[in-house]
Amino acid sequence: MDGTAPEIIDYYTSVYDEASRLSARSDGRLEFLRTQELLRRHLPAPPAGVLDVGGGPGVHARWLVADGYAVHLVDPVERHLRQAESSGCGTELGDARSLTAADANYDAVLLLGPLYHLTERDDRVRALREARRVLRPGGTLAVAAISRHAALLDLAAIGRLDRDAADILSLVLATGRHDDRLGFTTAYFHTVGELRSEVTEAGFAGVRIYGVEGPAWPALKGIEVRTGESLTGSPLAESALLAARIAESDPALLAASSHLLAVAQSSSQT
Ligand SMILES: C[S@@+](CC[C@H](N)C(=O)[O-])C[C@H]1O[C@@H](n2cnc3c(N)ncnc32)[C@H](O)[C@@H]1O
């Protein structure tokens, strides 16, 4: 196994400040609120031990600690660990595919990010198996993926879908593989079926998949980016949140969300 690709470390260290992604714009705020409500619905009650793998700057760790969870955050980007320190969680430099935690040590594992950046299926399943190894039997996994259609909806909404972008996008749609030509960095964008199959192959049971942002996030982002005016707290933002809740389990609308969240339970080790 190679370490995290250098361009991914560089992206989060020098190009993009992940610490403000879930608060700077209302589509990020929608992702935050929906992820938070889905986690609160499914996590075991506090005080449970939560391993936040790929936890980044600790935006979710902060409220989890405030809710009473004992959170340990693992991430390969040193800048993120420094940013996460003030959230009250433990921090550790590491990789989702090779965790240092002992077997059966956590009540819940979050993987809200690592699968975005592992372009090989074997690596993604390996990360999921590691999550299962460190979970107590019956423990809860919550794993996020970027939806295969996220870049198409994003570029169209903000008016950046020209012919060049469409050519690159056609490869993303066909393969799931995404490089830095459309912004972001090396990434993998999942179909719903792929996410389900990877989580199942790693040995989890009871897999449920939710759409996080629902079908109205492109309207929020498109209007906000093009007008420069914040929509946080607006009727449109409230409608988008309600739409996400209504559509969260609708198979026909799952792929309209920018992110998918799979929740599952660890079964006996194999
Ligand atoms: C988009 S950020 C998400 C951060 C946070 N979990 C959230 O949901 O807001 C993706 C995170 O995954 C981390 N990451 C990338 N590759 C990883 C890997 N192989 N193992 C663990 N984390 C990884 C990145 O450093 C980054 O912090």
Secondary structure elements and their pairing?
Elements: H1 6-15, H2 21-24, H3 26-42, E1 49-53, H4 59-66, E2 70-75, H5 78-84, E3 90-93, E4 106-111, H6 121-134, E5 135-147, H7 150-157, H8 163-175, E6 177-178, E7 187-190, H9 192-201, E8 204-211, H10 217-227, H11 235-247, E9 259-266
Helix pairs in contact: 3-11, 7-10
The structure holds S-adenosylmethionine.
Question: Would you give an account of this structure?
Answer:
The chain is of the alpha/beta class. The mean pLDDT is 96. Helix 3 (26-42) packs parallel to helix 11 and helix 7 (150-157) runs parallel beside helix 10. Strands 1, 2, 3, 4, 5, 6, 7, 8 and 9 form a 9-stranded mixed sheet that branches. Helix content is 43%, strand content 21%. The protein has a single domain, classed as Vaccinia Virus protein VP39 (Rossmann fold). It has 11 helices and 9 strands. It is globular.
Q: What's this model, at a glance?
A:
This protein is α/β, with parallel strands linked by helices. Helices cover 43% and strands 21% of the residues.
Unreliable stretches covering 5 or more consecutive residues: none
- Bound molecule kinds, no repeats: S-adenosylmethionine
- Quaternary status: single chain
> Counting H and I runs of at least 4 residues, what is the number of helices?
11
Q: Which labels suit this protein?
A:
Rossmann fold, single chain, globular, alpha/beta, binds S-adenosylmethionine, 270 residues, 9 strands, 9-stranded mixed β-sheet
